[in-house]
Amino acid sequence: MTRTKPTFNRAAVAAGILLSLAACTMPILEPTPAQTIPHDAATGQTLAEAREAIEAIPGISVTNFVGGNAPNIKGNTGYSVSFRVDPGYTLQAGDVLVDYIVRNVWSVGEGYLPNTQIQISSSTADGEPLFDLESAAAGSGWIPPVSPDPSQHSSVVVQLNPDDSAGARNLEMLTKDGPWPGPVPKPLSATVAVKAG
According to DSSP H, which parts of the chain are helical? Predict the structure, then answer.
């Protein structure tokens, strides 16, 4: 019969105790925003489909449509949509257009849920009637009322941060029909933008 040396047993027990203590003092890692923010839903439309839906409106050309990226180090992610009112067209229902853009973005299930904002920018060509994007966004209910200030180039930010009162209100409006991604909006009528003459 072979006897184990007592020093080996003591060393093994001591190593076991040290490992147990080390496990107790290891910090618990919090999940990253990329792990906790919903993304790549089984429903909703793609980024390309949302862009095409907006571009299908006569008189509107989308110049930029980005978003759905993984959250930054602060856990923020959002969208940016820019469009141009084509020469010869005038927007007759800017509030309807802004609402349509916001709901199209919210219906994108590809990528990450926007948890901070949707930035919308517009431009008109030289010599064309100016579009008051701020008033249109306020008229659609996505931003607080503003004084009219038409401009050739303008931007608005639709807040989606749940810790912000405007963001919480906007999220409540968006989720009335269910969680993200929302339903794909029906195509807009051709009368949103009207061709002169």
Answer: 6-25, 33-36, 47-55, 94-106, 133-139, 165-174
Cβ contact 143:99 at 8 Å:
no
Q: What is the pLDDT of residues 154-178, one digit of tens each?
A: 999 999 999 999 999 999 999 999 9
Average pLDDT in the 95-123 region? 98
64 near 56, Cβ under 8 Å? no
| Maximum pairwise Cα distance, the chain | 108
Cα 36 from Cα 158, distance rounded (Å): 22
Question: How far apart (Å, rounded) are the C-alpha atoms in residues 21 and 44?
Answer: 48
Report strand pairing: 117-124 vs 60-67: unpaired
Strands 79-85 and 117-124: parallel
Q: Is the dihedral of CA 109, 55, 156, 72 positive or negative?
A: positive
Which one, of 119, 112, 177, lies nearest residue 143 by Cα? Answer: 119
| Six token digits for residue 186 | 């029906």
Give 188's DSSP letter: P
